[in-house]
Amino acid sequence: MHICIRNGRLIDPDSGMDRIGDLYLAEGRIVSIDSRPEHFHDDRKIDASGLVVCPGLVDLSARLREPGLEYMATLESELEAAVAGGVTSLACPPDTDPPLDEPGLVEMLKHRARNLDRARVYPVGALTQGLKGERLTEMVELHDAGCVAFSQADAPIANLHVLMRAMQYAATFGFKVWLRPQDMYLANHGVAHDGEVATRLGLPAIPVCAETIALTDILSLMKETGASAHLCRISSAEGVALVRTAKQQGLPLTCDVSIHHVHLVDMDIGFFDANCHLMPPLRGLADRDALRAGLMDGAIDAICSDHAPVDDDAKLLPFAQAETGATGLELLLPLTLKWAMENRLSLPEALARITSYPARILGIDAGQLVAGAPADLCIFDPDAYWVVSNAELKSQGKNTPFLGMELCGRTRFTLIGGHVVYGW
Amino acid sequence: MSIHPQLNKNGELQHLLTTEGLPVAILRHILDTAESFIGVTERDVKKIPLLRGKSVFNLFFEPSTRTRTTFEIAAKRLSADVINLNMAVSSQTKGETLLDTVDNLSAMHADMFVVRHNQSGAAHLIARHVGPEIHVINAGDGWHAHPTQALLDMFTIRRYKQDFHTLRVAIIGDILHSRVARSQIHALTTLGVPEIRVIAPKTLLPARVERLGVHVYHNMTQGLKDVDVLMILRLQHERMESAHLPSTEEYFKYYGLTPGKLLLARSDAIVMHPGPMNRGVEIDSEVADGSQSVILPQVGFGIAVRMAVMSILAGN
Questions:
Q1: CB contact under 8 A, B211 and A199
Q2: Which residues form the Dihydroorotase catalytic domain (chain A) (predicted)?
Q3: Topology (CATH) of B147-295
């Protein structure tokens, strides 16, 4: 399939390229920018006038709910949502049922995903068996089956000795450990940030020190074991400060933030809006500002959707009992554009946080718009306004705090390996 | 549906979920209406027909004797049909969801739900869900709110102290886990009380509680000085197991209200407690039964205040 994308605003986040041009795709790759290669007969032309052509989005955290949680969502529905959101590669955390702790489960997931011919799925394997925080998984086997890193998802490791051994073992083989810093005892079944809102609403709270103390443990264990770590979904100003310092000291550390935390704060819970029941909890305004500052200065590398589709019934409960999470794959792009506009950031700089930077964290060949790169592309209309509604969302989960809000920026075409998988 | 959680589009009370954001005019109207019902509760024939033909469902997902009984009496005095449902041992244990239960009871033509639940926000959830013909009264949700308790406390204060604008009020005890304290603080603030104090050890205070408009004290000697109203909170025994406190004995020694500590307050100060009391834990018997205690009158006023809330809701 030879495709010519004409007259688009071509953006390569890494080089900062941002200009109108043509793109030539063949054999699943970008073969040329601007100059038509010799003997190139396009099977298809895409007119991208007025549209942005950028690398397909790379999402570091998207729950697909398979295996085992199909009542919430399926691979079909969520990979359709991914490409509708311009996401071409995604990492899925291991907190499925059963968790991704055996090679067979990972192979099955990869196989199912490949057959659907939608977004590329990169499973993150369980760090401990059953995510119980007790015994190590067969990390090498899991890696061979397709796992790109190892994590506990949201399950805690109470015993730091186990965490140290897990990091040592992962470091032996050069595997990266992904951890969400939260001390389970300090979090103590809390559901909201320990601030004025939780106090007013009478909600059990999670103090900021639940994040910073866990983070300090992880940083110490990194020094002890030599392991590389990626911190998932940081939430607090103090947390960002610790990450910044650790990076300055040269620790092999990367960090992401969920798009929800870039925009929302605990005040958005309003009168117990269960769609704002997220993990980590939405924190205060100063925290949100610090997360944004961290994105600007590189303390935080990437933005993820933290996609977590939840069925309606699981949200129609009192706040603390409602399932955590929000659907996000289709909102990652418009919400990142909104952040860029609010912070007066150039489009290449903003898109880097959802393309090239997360691709580097995953260690995959993606996130670049250069000759020779895979033809995984997102072609979007930066000026298209749309209202987030049940009908507009392809994801099986309709749970998002942004329901009813008008956002700007909509995917028109998504290409994976040179094939149009979304758009006409 | 109205944007406001408890007012209809005409600004009238549709549900009573919390005292937070309750307009002062509505709050005063409830207290004035309750005043007019005090006579009724003292008559031989204690019934008035304001809620005749209406069904009030007491939905108690958490055990309660006092609150449930006073709601039941209040509804019956207004001539309503009262259905008591002890949900703690009913459909919830059979796996039915909260909103399914509510839907089923709505289909039985309920006019009013009185809801007690151990989860903060449960009453809000139900109020958002039901049709416009149904009124929801929050009879206590988790740590969040207990508005009728706070209203009867305001009624009590007004009976004994008249002017809210000159008062110094202290709330003493487990503020962190108390829906009563939260509702009291909002109601006192709305009624114009210039100085509200909370007195508790740091383990029993929620984060940034001062943002609710209260002064924080950890010491009874300082906190009780020149106070007009003392509102004591119940201390749950679980607090010892969750490392909030070492023992009831030590708590009583430093935060229990004894006759000696009461001397620090103004000589005409009143002592209140929402019940049930733990004598010798948060309050000394001598104080509880003493001349400054208004704890028993509080209970009686609770019926009039709940009658007021129900009749106002039924009229809107």
A1: yes
A2: 51-238
A3: Rossmann fold (3.40.50)
